[in-house]
Write a structure and sequence with these properties.
The complex is a heterodimer of chains A (1099) and B (223). Chain A is of the alpha+beta class and 1099 residues long. Chain A contains 35 helices and 30 strands. Chain B is of the alpha/beta class and 223 residues long.
Chain lengths: 1099, 223
């Protein structure tokens, strides 16, 4: 006989017990492996989606939304391997007139033949008049190949929408397309540059057709570059810089009335500071020009309406115009009847946010009256204003400011016919800058003397000084960003480990209990080995090697079970738990390293558990083992009972004191207090039960009186095991209830606590609405004036700079979330959203004012939902997000406040003023919050949907929006509850297994009872009572502690708990567990008592 | 006649020969009977049948004048509780109960409180009689095997059975304690007037009882 042989024999002899232990280990390992695999699976799926989205695209080039010559892509292509494709990326409204369906915001992509090469199985690019839809879009529109549909597309123009004097009416063009094909996920159907797993709604059309439709022929607004070679942003900017021209930079140099003098203007109308400084450095002797459309030039008696006035420096007329001096044309002098020295007033609009116009005025004294025919009265001083420059009559002007047509006289039309936009007056450049500067710039032109050769040099130098990046061109590695976003996405492995926490605990505890039980059973064997001279160390080694085998036997099937568990979780995520991922196409991905990690961890934990159990059991005096498994240890039972009683009272008192305090001072109500009260009462309950069982042991009770007393005495024999089982069940029930209390029901938008800030609707438009919809002008322009039901509707406009969605609906890690600009003053007055956390720099009593605070250049403060900051962005308060602004400068957005869950989830909130300063073109007013007093919300919504449909208006109830975010969290909570219930069931089954084992060992005990006259039914009652005592104590203790704790929460929280679901869950757990235990127990007890007694002989 | 076996036979699965082959035995009141035989001869089987813990394949058991209906669980339990007392070779005291509580275990099925009270008093008196009154609150693991066995004996007698069945009651004891235990049993048997059947393989013990039977090859003969 060798030790190895002994081990083999032991393994065989105790195979049933070992297999049970192995089962517990298998369950624990399965949960570990399953949770880890799901983490891999989600990351793999997101990466796969990223590959579908981008194909072979690596780099993307944008120009801050501006359009540039599409030929730039060909120039870049010459120097690079791989495809380079110009595209137009826009949004449109897509309508299926036959099917009466529409998509208010569809991703519109203009592509040429180079685009499909980014995907292996791609469709050919569509011809003019044809289009390709993504699968999701085709399904939503209910379109099939061959069907026609309409696209309504915004015509962008070269000039930013919010520029002063530029017509703010959206020019929209509509075109009919035939659906040529539907693009699946593997063939560009998933194309999107947003790091998001949701399938995009996209339509692909011919680039040349699209550019013609929107009046931007032969242009693109983005370039996509294929992977391959060592390309960097610097390389790309260099290539752009080598091939771009002034037109791409939006700059024009033209001739003027003055020979040898050229004029530099931009598409943006106003020249920004950067261009201004650059040009000054290239051409130091340059004339600054600022032309402005004034509403009127008047005296006390006469007025000349709607004229251009230009501010110039002293070199223009070789005359220094005084600060309040004005030089006028003779035409104007005659019109106004003024002479030199007379006083004139200029009235003009200053543009505020949302195109709010404030008329201002300034007085001047006539310094000189000059001949209108002087060449310096140059019509080219008027900027190229869309809506004005090409107008035949003044009455045809389409400006961004209101024109009172009744003021326009015949002589004004005559003037326009003869002189067009020639300025009627001049003021000093200093004065002009003082009164007419805006966020776009403070000049409209430069004039400089040059010849052709010099002009070319200047152009070349200008292009080289104005590097593309400072002109808004940016290059981003979409592939790397996408990969990073997928890799650093929400870690589902960790998440499901957390959610499966209770199952893990139940499985490991069960394993430990089984090991402990077995160890005690073998006490006599251990004592015998010791008594024949085998040292404890060797005995320990024997037992550990057995455990090693058992752990191996347990962990290996754990792999298969883990894979199965993962498949079930994936199925769940793709179906009933779809709100979590938002898609139904998650796929399993098995990684050997992950599986081995789970295997190793499961094996290690189970082996460590065995080691601890063996060590503890060998610590007993071995001679006591001879007396059998129930040898009393040296334990002062009475003293312990006394201690437990004391602790039960103390914890109970503290718990109830806290509860009473909560009702006296409701302000302290909250989650922390709930946990505190619940935990104290749970502990108190555990000590009560401990006291009962310890007391039952030490005090003489009338065990002959009834089965109950006998059962409690039996439980007290195995009190530690009994208490452990009860704690497990109590913790499980407690966690489930506390988790369930966090499920958020649908809220009312009226409640200011609901995260909706009291707004009823959240609306978005595909086309920006540049008007203040609360103003008369705004309502008139959009056609919503004089609609009674809309009279009480208040609009709050939000400017947004598009980025990635940082809400819980996006699984990808987001580094550039959407910036949303709010009116901080208005939000402050409303004071309707709660902050969970504020940076110390932010005033507690007026937090919103912090958004408008002035910070050093390039820094703006921001707020966001705290969950977005923590889980979406993986940041904390005080951290900074960096964005390149429209001038290529870096903007530091500092997170200073974390809101409670709100409708703004997914966005980073900044002041609209600050946002527009840094993103005058990209900050688009396309999101709106509506405060609706009317009870007939549906009618208001329908009316607005109809009236604003051409803007692609889409409105959602704010309560629904919040609910969609809450649904994600609620789903996670439901998963935890279900898995918790599964853990409870494992706990009960495990307890039952131990009880069955006990029943088997206690056959002699039961045989004696039968022999002294107990009926079989009475013995079964005894066993049932023991089992039910453990289950009920555990479940009731956990449930009651949780419910009392929940009374500490504010509001009517108990009503939000899904009671029916919990009742069903607990009933299922209890019934399944009980039946699976008591049925085999009953069967066991039906055997003849003789078999129990036989144990005494020859076993 | 307190009990009678009439041509009882019993065999076990996978065994060709019968353990009990048409065995008959009459047990009058107030009698002590010893049953001896070699190991595995079926002595315990015979005792188990007498105690209704096992059922014969054929033949009859008559207890207190009537044949028990084995399908009537309540009846069988009543018989075991009130008519019969069993002492096992290993004491089978419940480890979670004190000695006092162990002897009170047979009282649990009783429904009549005065009966219970009387039995309780009887039990305590017996424990005093056997010198264990000081250890009533001790647990089995705190006393010696002999003391456990004596307690088991009191447990068997607490309900004043008419028939006491003892299956190798001294098997776990040394010869001195064994002798003391048998003497005590016989004393109590005479005092209380119950009949006693003792299975033993010790002739020394067997000869102390009124009648001695030998069970061999399935047959029972008085010697």
């Amino acid at each position: 006989m060798s030790i190895f042989r002994l081990i083999l024999r032991n393994l065989l002899f105790f195979r049933r017990q070992h297999l049970l232990t192995a089962l517990g280990i298998a369950v624990a390992t399965a949960v570990l492996i399953g949770a880890l695999i799901i983490g891999d699976s989600v990351k793999y799926s997101l990466n796969k989606i990223k590959e579908q989205r981008l194909g072979k695209i690596e780099w993307t080039i944008f120009a801050n939304g501006r359009y540039f010559n599409a030929g730039l892509a060909d120039s870049i292509h010459k120097s690079l391997n791989g495809s380079v494709s110009p595209v137009i990326l826009a949004e449109a409204i897509c309508i299926n007139p036959e099917g009466n369906s529409r998509i208010n915001r569809i991703q519109l992509i203009g592509i040429n033949d180079s685009f499909p090469s980014f995907w292996n199985n791609s469709l050919p690019s569509p011809k003019a008049g044809e289009a390709i839809l993504s699968k999701a879009a085709a399904e939503k529109l209910r379109l099939n190949p061959g069907d026609d549909f309409i696209l309504k597309i915004h015509k962008p123009g070269k000039t930013p929408q919010n520029t002063p004097f530029v017509d703010d009416r959206q020019e929209v063009t509509a075109a009919r397309f035939k659906l040529a094909a539907i693009a699946g996920d593997e063939s560009m159907g998933r194309f999107s540059l947003s790091n998001n797993q949701l399938p995009p709604l996209s339509v692909f059309v011919s680039l040349s057709r699209l550019s013609s439709l929107i009046g931007m022929k032969n242009t693109a607004n983005a370039i996509l570059i294929e992977k391959g070679g060592s390309v960097s942003p610097d390389t790309i900017m260099k290539l752009i810089g080598e091939d771009w021209n002034l037109e791409d930079a939006g700059i024009t140099i033209t001739g003027t009335n003055t020979p040898g003098t050229k004029q530099l203007t931009t598409d943006q109308i106003f020249i920004d500071k950067k261009l201004s400084n650059t040009f000054h450095s290239i051409v130091p002797e340059t004339q600054e020009i600022l032309s402005y459309l004034v509403n009127g030039i008047s005296t006390s008696e006469h007025s000349t309406p709607y004229s251009f006035v230009t501010a110039v420096d002293s070199t223009y007329f070789n005359y220094r115009i005084g600060e309040n001096e004005i030089l006028i044309s003779d035409w104007l002098a005659k019109d106004l009847g003024v002479e030199t020295g007379d006083s004139l007033r200029l009235r003009y609009y200053k543009l505020g946010p949302l195109r709010s116009l404030k008329e201002d005025s300034c007085n001047f004294a006539v310094g000189k009256i000059m001949d209108q025919t002087n060449s310096l009265f140059d019509r080219s001083l008027m900027p190229e204003l869309p809506g004005i420059s090409k107008a035949v009559n003044c009455r045809d002007w389409e400006t961004g400011s209101p024109i009172n047509l009744s003021l326009i006289r015949d002589q004004d039309e005559e003037y326009w016919k003869d002189y067009r936009g020639t300025p009627k007056a001049f003021i000093s450049i200093e004065k002009g800058k003082e009164i007419w500067s805006n966020s776009y710039g403070n000049l409209t032109a430069f004039r400089f003397k040059t010849d052709s050769a010099e002009k070319l040099k200047i152009e070349k130098r200008l292009l080289s000084e104005l590097d593309p990046s400072s002109n808004g061109f940016t290059a981003r590695n979409a592939a790397v960003e996408g990969e990073r976003a997928a890799k650093q996405s929400s870690d589902f492995g960790e998440l499901f480990l957390g959610l499966s926490f209770f199952i893990l605990i139940a499985a490991f505890l069960l394993t430990a209990l089984l090991m402990g039980l077995q160890s005690r059973k073998r006490a006599a064997e251990i004592a015998l080995l010791n008594s024949i001279g085998i040292r404890k160390r060797i005995i320990s080694r024997i037992l550990l090697i057995e455990s090693l085998f058992v752990s191996l036997i347990g962990t290996i099937p754990g792999i298969l079970l883990g894979i199965l568990y993962n498949e079930l979780l994936i199925k769940g995520l793709n179906t009933i738990w779809q709100p979590v991922a938002g898609i139904s196409t998650l796929k399993s991905h098995l990684d050997v390293v992950t599986i081995l990690t789970g295997l190793f961890t499961g094996f290690t934990v189970s082996f460590l558990t065995s080691w601890i159990v063996i060590r503890l059991s060998l610590k007993e005096q071995l001679f006591q083992a001879v007396k059998g498994e129930h040898a009393l240890k040296h334990e002062n039972i009475s003293r312990k009972a006394g201690i437990y009683k004391f602790l039960a009272i103390i914890f109970g008192i503290f718990g109830f004191i806290l509860l009473i305090l909560r009702f006296i001072n409701p302000r302290i109500a909250g989650a922390e207090l709930t946990m505190g009260i619940g935990s104290l009462l749970l502990l108190s309950g555990i000590f009560v039960i401990s006291f009962q069982l310890y007391n039952a042991w030490s005090k003489s009770a009338a065990v002959s009186a009834n089965i109950r007393n006998l059962a409690i005495r039996s439980l007290s024999l195995r009190r530690k095991r009994s208490i452990t089982s009860i704690i497990l069940l109590a913790l499980g029930a407690f966690s489930i209830f506390i988790t369930a209390s966090n499920i958020k029901p649908a809220s009312s938008s009226k409640s200011q606590d609901s995260g909706t800030a009291g707004f009823s609707l959240w609306a978005e438009s595909t086309l920006p609405i540049h008007f203040d919809l609360n103003s008369h002008n705004g309502r008139k322009q959009t056609g919503i004036q004089d609609i009674n039901i809309l009279n009480d509707v208040k609009f709050e406009t939000i400017y947004r700079v598009k980025g990635d969605d940082a809400s819980c609906l996006n699984l990808n890690q987001v580094s550039n979330p959407t910036l949303a600009g709010l009116n901080a003053v208005s939000m402050g007055e409303r004071n309707s959203l709660k902050f969970q956390l504020l940076h110390p720099f932010v005033p507690q009593d007026n937090a919103w004012s912090a958004l408008d605070s002035i910070y050093p250049s390039g820094i703006i403060p921001a707020f966001a939902d705290l969950t977005v900051i923590t889980w979406g962005l993986h940041r904390k308060l005080g951290d900074t997000l960096i964005y390149p602004d429209e001038k290529g400068n870096l903007l530091h957005v500092v997170l200073l406040g974390g809101l409670e869950n709100s409708i703004f989830q997914g966005n980073v909130l900044v002041s609209s003023k600050r946002l527009v300063e840094h993103f005058p073109t990209l900050a688009t007013p396309n999101t709106f919050l509506l405060d609706i007093k009317s009870a007939d919300l549906t009618r208001v919504t329908d009316t607005l949907d109809y009236l604003l449909r051409d803007y692609g208006w889409m409105a959602t109830m704010t309560s629904e929006r919040i609910h969609s975010f809450n649904q994600v969290e609620n789903t996670y909570l439901m998963v935890f509850i279900l898995l918790g219930g599964l853990g409870l069931m494992i706990g009960i089954l495990g307890m039952g297994v131990i009880l069955i084992r006990n029943t088997s060992e206690r056959r002699k005990e039961f045989a004696v009872m039968l022999s002294v006259g107990f009926t079989g039914k009475q013995v079964f009652q005894l066993l049932s009572f023991e089992f039910l005592y453990l289950i009920f104590s555990g479940l009731l203790l956990g449930t009651i502690s949780a419910i009392i704790g929940l009374m500490a929460l504010p509001g009517d929280t108990l009503h939000g708990i899904p009671w029916m679901m919990l009742i069903l869950l607990f009933t299922l757990v209890f019934t399944t567990g009980t039946l699976s235990i008591l049925l085999p127990a009953a069967r066991l007890l039906r055997k003849s008592p003789v078999s129990g007694l036989r144990g005494e002989k020859g076993d | 006649m307190i009990a009678e076996l009439q041509a009882v036979s019993k065999s076990y699965p996978l065994m060709e020969t019968k353990v009990l082959n048409e065995v008959s035995l009459r047990i009058p009141s107030n009698t002590s009977i010893a049953i001896t035989g070699p190991s595995g001869s079926g002595k315990s089987t015979l005792l188990n049948i007498l105690g209704t813990l096992d059922t014969p394949d054929s033949g009859k058991l008559i207890l207190d004048g009537s044949e028990p209906n084995y399908s009537d669980n309540q009846l069988i339990s009543n018989i075991r509780n009130k008519l019969i007392g069993f002492v096992f070779q290993s004491h089978h005291l419940l480890p979670q109960l004190t000695l006092l509580e162990n002897i009170q275990l047979p009282l649990l099925p009783l429904t009549n409180n005065s009966e219970k009270q009387q039995a309780m008093e009887r039990g305590i008196a017996l424990m005093k009689r056997i010198g264990l009154s000081e250890k009533l609150n001790s647990r089995p693991s705190q006393v010696s095997v002999g003391e456990c066995q004596r307690t088991a004996m009191v447990r068997a007698m607490v309900n004043s059975p008419k028939l006491l069945l003892a299956d190798e009651p001294t098997g776990s004891l040394d010869s001195e304690n064994a002798s003391l235990l048998i003497d005590l049993l016989l004393e109590l048997q005479k005092e209380q007037g119950f009949s006693m059947v003792v299975v033993t393989h010790s002739m020394e013990i067997a000869t102390k009882l009124q009648k001695v039977y030998q069970l061999k090859s399935g047959s029972l003969k008085q010697i």
